[in-house]
Amino acid sequence: MSEHQPKSSAGPWTQSIRLAFYALLGLTLLAAASWLFSNIRQIPADSRAVVLHFGAQQRIAEPGLLLSWPKPIDDVVMVPAPDRVIEHRVSALLRSPNALNADMRDDNSSDALAGSGYLLTGDAGVVQLDISVFYRVNSPMDYVLQGEHVIPALDRLVERAAVAVCAARDLDTILVARPEMIGNDMNVAKLRERLRADVQHNVEQNLQRLAQSGSSLGITLERVTVQSTLPASTVTAFNAVLTASQKASQAIATANTDASLIRQKSTQLADRTRQTAQAQAQEKVAKAQSDTAMVARLANTPHDPDLLPRVYRERIAAILAQAESVITVSPQDDANLILQAAGQKEPSQK
């Protein structure tokens, strides 16, 4: 008797292999779909997209939905929109961290770090410039072509402009190094205000030269900000000089005040001494005139020739009595002497 035998079902290994195959197929289809739609994206409003077809520049996509072939067929590079201003601080002009650490340790042993972040001025001074540039992307194709070289090239252009501008100026036309000279020269103040404009003009000229030579960076400069400072040690030295100048000016002002007081007192003393001397002179003249008044009147009296000798004889005794000894010689005859007798008031002739 023949019996119908049922078909045996697949084994567990066969089922596992089938499930794994289906899962792998699903993942492959999902990866293929993801790859196929990888360059379908939304471009933000502040950006644009440069599409490269097998590495060649194909088109520029504006903000919105972008439909493009996936990599490596098409490569999509996002660039800033033309109305977006990008700020970049030029770090090449800043003092390196190692140099700052050496300054804090007061270690000047490394010559390689000694001039880091310093610019030399036309009068052999030292200044530090902190420059930030603001730019727009005006040529997306050139910007993408330059790629990672845009920022280093911009740093070199700004550094070159800073060196050229500082070398053409002295320290006082870059920043106020000596406050006591403020307002002394209006031309210096104007040159100090033109520092930023000169740096920007120099960078713009160099960007134009690069564009004319076929190496455009694809950017246009909007503005430049420049902040100039002195090294910390220089600031300390200038502060010390300024303090010394202020002290010297204060000492000079005090000395001038003291000199004015002394001169005023001396003038007053001189005036007082002169007035006293004039008063004493007038008193002495008046006393002399009083003492000689009788003699002057007698000399001016011609009608009595014997009056003057008589007065002379009356007064000469009192005058000669004050002397210890007196010898009188007659001018007409030196053989006769008039001697004062002892105990007598009047002279006697001997």
Compute the number of helices: 9
Q: Report the β-strand fraction as a percent range.
A: 15-25%
Class of secondary structure makeup: alpha+beta
Task: Report the mean per-residue pLDDT as an integer.
Answer: 78
| Low-pLDDT segments, ≥5 res | 1-8, 344-350
The separation of the N and C termini measures: 221 Å
Largest sheet properties: 4 strands, antiparallel
* CA-atom Rg in angstroms: 57 Å
Form type: rod-shaped
Helix content: 40-55%
Count all strands and give the number.
12
Note down, in words, how this protein is organized:
This protein is an alpha+beta fold and 350 residues long. Helix content is 47%, strand content 18%. The chain contains nine helices and twelve strands. A hairpin with a 5-residue loop joins strand 7 (119-120) and strand 8. Helix 4 (150-167) packs across helix 6 (195-212). Residues 1-8 and 344-350 have low confidence and may be disordered.
Concise summary:
The protein is α+β, with helices and mostly antiparallel strands and 350 residues long. It has helices at residues 12-36, 97-105, 140-146, 150-167, 186-193, 195-212, 232-291, 293-299, 307-320; strands spanning 41-43, 47-53, 56-61, 64-66, 74-80, 86-89, 119-120, 126-137, 219-229, 327-329, 337-339, 348-349.
